[in-house]
Amino acid sequence: FDIYKNMRNPDPDRLPVSYEEWEKAARHKLEDGPFYYVKGGAGGGRTMDANVSSFNRWQIVPRMLNNVDERDQSIQLFGQSFPSPILHAPIGTQSVIHKEGELGSAKACAELGIPYIASSASTFPMEKIAEAMGDAPRWFQHYWSRDPEIAASFVKRAEASGYSAIVVTLDTPMMAWREDDLRNVYLPFLIGEGVGNYFTDPAFLSKLDQSPQDDPEAAVMHWTKVFGNTGLTWDDLAFLREHTNLPILLKGILHPEDAELALKYGVDGIIVSNHGGRQVDGAIAAIDALPLITDTVQGRIPVLMDSGIRRGSDIIKAMALGAKAVLVGRPAMYGLAVDGQRGVKEVLQNLAADLDITLGLIGKNSVNQIDESVIVEAQKFR
Ligand code: FNR
Description:
Blueprint: H1 2-5, H2 19-29, H3 32-39, H4 46-53, E1 58-60, E2 75-77, E3 80-82, E4 86-88, H5 101-112, E5 116-119, H6 126-133, E6 138-142, H7 148-160, E7 166-169, H8 179-183, H9 196-199, H10 202-205, H11 216-226, H12 237-243, E8 248-253, H13 256-264, E9 269-272, H14 286-297, E10 303-305, H15 312-320, E11 325-328, H16 330-361, E12 375-377, H17 378-381
Parallel strand pairs: 4-11, 5-6, 6-7, 7-8, 8-9, 9-10, 10-11
Antiparallel strand pairs: 1-12, 2-3
Helix pairs in contact: 2-16, 5-6, 5-16, 13-14, 15-16
Bound molecules: ligand FNR.
Ligand FNR binds near residues 119, 275, 276, 308 and 329.
């Protein structure tokens, strides 16, 4: 209710409200290179668009007279309690978006208790991000390097600095065909941003002839050789399991048979995601892949999802289709572009407020009560 109450005293530096306004405000702040790095998708952007439009295939059917005085959006995951089913998606090279970079985003999440997932490709070392967050919840996103020593080192460093889960992103063994970045001749990595986390890694540094300070170009070039790993197979997951006791989640699962394999190989969670439409143009929308995966998994491990979450009602639809929680990417990045930490906090807080209001308006007291009875497929309701 505070949101509406505050309308009586409008703040002259009022921040945007809707996703579309945040994107517009970010456009004013950023040059073409960084703006399209955030906004862009793979190829013609068809999957990126479908991620959002496919939410319209589902319609919420609100219930009345259920006493919604009390509402609770907290969830439990891997034995931890979080205040909301919203997590901050892993995003690399945030210092090209705002000078506060990952530190601003991580601190905003810490203020709200929303788990921050630090990208392997963070500008700042994962230890610095952890330090900025204090005791607040955080996970680490692992880009599995071609160099096994770096892969092992990243996991060890994450464990040592208080990250409580490892998210292995499977859909990016190499950069995709991204036409905006190609047009703008813009790849933050190749201009030296986003390598901070690698440039402080003992295993990475041990492979260089000269320090990154003395020869930054050679260090970036070495990074391009070791960043991804197109040779990985399911059996390689055993290597990761040997190096950590933390829960392991696989990010980028879209096919039910891959969900089956994830269960067979003993991972702890799945994130249904197409990387915000940034990898395979024409790939299935994440919200369309979700029910196929949750049907396969049958609650044996938590299934999370991202790609296309823009509003509270999207979260309700994702949870109705079996997601335990959702990750938010671009909305948070537009917040960062507009006003650093304050912008990210505002975006995430608004999303949680929108979820709270919508939860009450559909007649539910808790996100745990959201199930498939809350939605129908659009054509069935006509
Ligand atoms: C990403 N994403 C991503 N994912 C990941 O696992 N590691 C990373 O470093 C990045 N980097 C990254 C940069 C930028 C600018 C964007 C927009 C996205 C993907 C991200 O985690 C998430 O899957 C999508 O952003 C979700 O889609 P929405 O919310 O942006 O539609």
